[in-house]
Amino acid sequence: VKRDTPLGPGREFDAIRALRAQWGAIAEGLGDDAAVVDVPDDERLVVSTDTSCENVHFRRAWIEPEEIGWRATMAALSDLAAMAARPIGMFVAISVPTGWRRDLQAIGAGIGAAARDAACTIRGGDLTGGSELSLTITVLGGAREPLNRSGAQPGDALWLTGALGGPALALRAWLDGSVPPAAARERFAKPHARLRQAAHLRAAGASAAIDISDGLAADALHLAHASHATLAIELGSIPLCPGARPRDAATSGEEYELLVTGPASINALAFRTAFGLPLTRIGSVERGPPGVRMLLDGAHVDVGGGYDHFLR
Amino acid sequence: VKRDTPLGPGREFDAIRALRAQWGAIAEGLGDDAAVVDVPDDERLVVSTDTSCENVHFRRAWIEPEEIGWRATMAALSDLAAMAARPIGMFVAISVPTGWRRDLQAIGAGIGAAARDAACTIRGGDLTGGSELSLTITVLGGAREPLNRSGAQPGDALWLTGALGGPALALRAWLDGSVPPAAARERFAKPHARLRQAAHLRAAGASAAIDISDGLAADALHLAHASHATLAIELGSIPLCPGARPRDAATSGEEYELLVTGPASINALAFRTAFGLPLTRIGSVERGPPGVRMLLDGAHVDVGGGYDHFLR
């Protein structure tokens, strides 16, 4: 474990000191201009950056400060999961408006809890002012053979982790001024990056993966374009969060499940036993122009353009 | 050079496509969940993240969109310079309010120009909405022996690159409603990360370095704390931007010069010849409690707490 560099005085550094004290051992070597990060010789470095911004990705009235930190961290880590990478470290840039300063420690607690959950050290960051709360989290991971979006092959099966539609239900309730069902709220507020699941699927022969943070329909289309293939999805096969409809499953964004292509022979029961999470075959990769065909009970369904962040 | 991953449809992806087209060869492999980045075997990975936010770090009326992109990129790269690291790649997260959308290409042009100037590829990013323009740039570099803040030794000389006070003059003019002198404005709007200079100083025996983006007084104090030493600085020795006073040199922030400790024997003339930039001995590292003594013409000067970002 790297020693922290002693910090000079100043309000910004008092805030950093407080975060560092709260994070304890999950934060490492903070305080220099930059961090030195070691990547094992037999792994390739995988990097992604992800912003979570008040009034774009969440509203203050909906979730707790600790959940804001957790969610932003898991959203960033989810991109490592999509590449089947193991987390190595993260960098946290936070813009904190005056009205959020008293919540910074709680936001930091959520970041720290998510980092611990994913065994990912916090290696640096930046703290600035701003008019809206915004967290940009950059994650570094390592993978011997990173999984990408472009490896899907005609004949592959299409697999999905988890159950969908919860975040859509929660958002619909909040935007209607009502209280979302607890399970749907939890799906929005406390997502989990599917890191261990991705490593398992990689080992089981997965050929491509994407996380479906922009919704299944939109992200399936990205995977189809990247792999130059057609994806055929049977909406009726998708496990749903209680209260969600099949169309919700296609368009619900802020989901952090994985869409994975690979052998039809992957053992879904063993997956569920290992992770307490469904793994469901929802379709196939076909030869054809880049695109997605959605079927419900055998009929073609047009779900529209997919999910755009709810307040943009 | 990595092939870009084909992107699916959507407004966000149209914007990413346009940026990618503008960046050309300096952008590499954009479009997957995360980027795979190769670090040479004989180098250690150095990482830093830096946010540049409207109304905190700049105002729209002051500088052009292209300068905003350049400046944010160079500010991030400056942290690699402080570690004597060679840029490997960068990740660009931008929050773009509706009123800034038409400027996104110009902002991207500035980012691209700075990336090319530093020979640093753009490897990924994130584009979201927001109420204020905000750029968070994460830079990755490689260094055989990264330089940090904690290596200063009593007896070392204190060296400074460049001339100070320009950003302070520019800010003072803008906040007074007047037009800053061209040279001072240029120092604020078009900083240069001292990457090659840092590599040169590292090879010449530098023991510690910090960039002085928070101002010389504040950042000297950070270096003093990190190295458990006293820094003695003669303000009168600091090269000044035309119109700036020695006190401006101590407190002016948004400077991207380097404060470096190392042998008194470093050849400043050779440095100036190589880089067209002054290298000036401005003081010494002394045994003593962590702190900074500022002297002007032999008398002790208290410059106050240093620079806090101008609008916080």
Topology, pairings included?
The structure is a homodimer of 312-residue chains.
Chain A: H1 11-23, E1 35-37, E2 44-53, H2 65-82, E3 86-95, H3 104-117, E4 121-128, E5 134-143, E6 157-161, H4 166-175, H5 182-189, H6 195-203, E7 208-211, H7 216-227, E8 230-234, H8 246-251, E9 258-262, H9 268-275, E10 279-286, E11 291-296, E12 299-300
Parallel strand pairs in A: 3-4, 8-11
Antiparallel strand pairs in A: 2-5, 3-5, 6-9, 6-10, 7-9, 8-10, 11-12
Question: How would you portray this structure in words?
Answer:
The structure is a homodimer. Helices cover about 30% and strands about 25% of the residues of chain A. The first copy, chain A, has about 300 residues and is of the alpha+beta class. In chain A, strands 7-9-6-10-8-11-12 form a 7-stranded mixed sheet. Chain A has a 4-stranded mixed sheet with strand order 2-5-3-4. In chain A, strand 3 (about 85-95), helix 3 and strand 4 (about 120-130) form a beta-alpha-beta unit. In chain A, helix 1 (about 10-25) runs parallel beside helix 3. The longest helix of chain A has 18 residues, at about 65-80. The model of chain A has no long low-confidence stretch (mean pLDDT about 90). At the A-B interface, strand 1, strand 2, helix 2, strand 3 and strand 4 of A face strand 1, strand 2, helix 2, strand 3 and strand 4 of B. Strand 1 (about 35) of chain A pairs antiparallel with strand 2 (about 45-55) of chain B.
